[in-house]
Write a structure and sequence with these properties.
Elements (H helix, E strand, L loop, with lengths): L3 E4 L13 E4 H6 L3 H16 L7 E8 L5 H14 L2 E7 L6 H10 L4 E5 L11 E8 L4 E2 L2 H11 L4 E4 L10 E5 L2 E6 L2 H11 L2 H9 L4 E4 L5 H12 L7 E2 L20 H6 L18 E5 L6 E5 L2 E3 L1 H10 L5 H4 L6 E5 L5 H9 L2 E5 L7 H6 L3 E5 L3 E4 L7 H14 L5 H12 L1 E12 L1 H13 L11 E6 L2 E2 L6 E2 L4 E5 L4 E6 L7 E11 L4 H4 L3 H4 L1 H11 L1 H4 L7 E2 L1
Bound molecules: alpha-D-glucose-1-phosphate-6-vanadate (VG1) and cobalt (II) ion.
């Protein structure tokens, strides 16, 4: 059968951001040739830089997080991949797979890559967001910048795409033919669950769960749901009533599938917490562990009774308690760890004590991949509710939940709050929070960053406590690629920091992120109870004054504080 070659013209704006290409759903759905153009650009751009299978060979995984337009876009990708001669295409049944699940699929099936229909934690629906991420094989890591750039370049010069006719019934497991390609619709959970079983001592977890700790898992109607049900209920014996929103829905039930203090509100309430992370009035229920996941299942939020564990602290605790996690323990303990630059430096102190390397990378999981090839076993994370290890090449929400269960199982009688506070006593505490100004005008946001840039190296800084302003850049230790302009760091006397960056995952306007951090080397008992968002207000104000944020950005205050 011969593939059709369809004429098209370039469509602007297809440069992938921090994690894939995200646009309003309408753009994908109603712009003629939009999905086809991007699909063909991926094929050709990827072939140019190497790694995409030659015609008549190879295996690609195609799935998504189940959001609105998932199935339609999958069908289009199937047609274009078949039209370009991909021999085998693996599709999770119903087209739903979490991002870490897809990474596991690529790795365990030695596939050439994965293409995922997801805008992650962005809301879904006809008036919300849609996106496409892609990962390379055989390691299953998010596409690196040279590849995303090659794809973008291709999108600016594309003149036609190849496709075959036909559709595949992705709701039924089986083997199908599409053009000259074979499409295998599979149950994708088997590989992922097998991977998690290698990471954790399920027997230990089962015994812990037999003691009936009060647990709560919120999949926010995203792709983590089916895996959470299978692992927590079927494998570990957690009662079904302790899991909710585990059925993936196209609109995430009308919610914003972002597991933070604002959007995982039911979990926050059940943990007897206030929206700012401070302890609220006790509901009586003493939640041992609560975890929420995002739309594509790679993020996690950890809470306990009247306690919010910030992602930066959660990461540091897991590093300190690595011996509780089979994956690390069996392989002689952590070999190295990493955090993204805006993530708090709590991890660094654990690494120092353990005499292991702690890398500082730009924002986005794609920068961790090479480090994991260098050193294993490896733990890494981001302040944006991302935690993971070298078992896959994506952050992994369910992995984080199991990691915390493992820690709690080894620290009998201790709550999440007890574990974190004990950690602070031993290692010091980093007060940490993030203020987001979402969908503000791009011009103002860019002018603010330029203003901060003008302060670099200046002799007279606008605040007496401000010691330096610098722009973060990074050189990859494996391939020596360099990445510039990854955020402005304002360093204050006493070790406080404010970091300013513009988000690379939005679909409209610009989002300014302000990350605020202040270390307390020897916290007093009162310091352990400080509410970070309150304790950091003064420093946040100072940083914003230096950035002249309110002059450049026309907003009273942040849209979200986490
Ligand atoms: C955000 C986070 C970043 C994360 C990225 C993808 O990027 O800050 O840490 O890796 O989202 O997460 P940005 O550029 O908007 O700050 V997800 O769950 O979309 O894969
Ligand atoms: Co995500």
């Amino acid at each position: 059968r011969v593939a059709l070659n369809v004429a098209t013209t370039p469509i602007e704006g297809m440069r992938p951001g921090t994690s894939g290409l995200r646009k309003r759903t309408k753009v994908w759905e109603t712009t003629e040739h939009y999905v086809e153009n991007f699909a063909q650009s991926i094929v050709e751009g990827w072939r140019d830089v190497g790694g995409f299978p030659a015609s008549g060979s190879g295996t690609m995984v195609v799935g998504g997080d189940g959001r609105y337009f998932n199935k339609e876009a999958i069908q289009t990708f199937l047609k274009v991949l078949a039209g370009n001669g991909v021999k085998t295409i693996v599709v999770p049944v119903h087209g739903v797979v979490s991002t870490p699940g897809a990474s596991a699929l690529v790795r365990r099936n030695k596939a050439d890559g994965a293409i995922l229909m997801t805008a992650s934690h962005n809301p879904g629906g006809p008036d919300a967001d849609f996106g496409v991420k892609f990962n390379t094989g055989p390691d299953g890591a998010p596409a690196k910048e040279f590849l995303t750039e090659a794809v973008y370049e291709k999108s600016t010069s594309i003149s036609s795409y190849n496709m075959v006719d036909g559709t595949v019934d992705i709701t039924t497991v089986g083997t199908y033919t599409l053009g000259d390609s074979t499409v295998q619709v599979i149950d994708a959970l088997d590989d992922y669950v097998a991977q998690l079983q290698e990471c954790f001592d399920f027997e230990k977890l089962r015994n812990f769960i037999k003691k009936k700790p009060s647990l709560l898992f919120d999949a926010m109607h995203g792709a983590a749901g089916p895996a959470a049900l299978r692992v927590m209920c079927q494998e570990l014996g957690v009662p079904k009533s302790q899991l909710y929103r585990c059925d993936p829905r196209p609109d995430f039930g009308g919610c914003h599938p972002d597991p933070n203090l604002k959007w995982a509100s039911e979990l926050v309430r059940r943990a007897s917490l206030n929206e700012d992370g401070s302890p609220g009035d006790s509901l009586g229920e003493e939640l041992a562990l609560g975890v929420a996941f995002d739309g594509d299942g790679d993020r996690n939020m950890i809470v306990g009774h009247r306690f919010f564990a910030s992602p930066s602290d959660s990461l540091a605790v897991l590093a300190a308690q690595a011996k509780s996690i089979k994956w690390f323990k069996d392989r002689g303990g952590l070999a190295a760890c990493a955090r993204s630059m805006p993530t708090s430096r709590a991890l660094d102190r654990v690494a120092e004590k353990q005499s292991i390397e702690c890398y500082e990378t730009p924002t986005g999981w794609k920068f961790f991949g090479n480090l994991m090839e260098l050193k294993q076993p490896f733990l890494c994370g981001e302040e944006s509710f991302g935690t993971g290890a070298d078992h896959v090449r994506e952050k992994d929400g369910l992995w984080a939940a199991l990691a915390w269960l493992s820690v709690l199982a080894d620290n009998e009688g201790m709550s999440v709050g007890d574990v974190v506070k004990q950690h602070w006593k031993e290692y010091g505490r980093d007060l940490y929070c993030r203020h987001d100004y979402e969908e503000v005008a791009s011009e103002g946001a860019q002018a603010m960053m330029a203003h901060l840039g003008s302060l670099i190296g200046s002799d007279v800084l606008p605040d007496p406590d401000l010691e330096s302003v610098s722009s973060f850049s990074y050189v990859d230790p494996l391939d020596s690629s360099s990445t510039e302009n990854q955020g402005m760091i304002l360093a204050f006397a006493g070790g406080g920091r404010c970091v300013f960056r513009l988000s690379g995952t939005g679909s409209a306007g610009a989002t300014v992120r302000v990350y605020i951090e202040r270390p307390l080397a020897n916290p007093s008992d009162a310091d352990l109870d400080l509410v970070a968002s309150e304790a950091l207000e003064a420093l946040a104000d100072k940083g914003k004054a230096v950035a002249r944020l309110h002059a450049f950005v026309d907003r009273e205050g942040p849209s979200v504080i986490t």
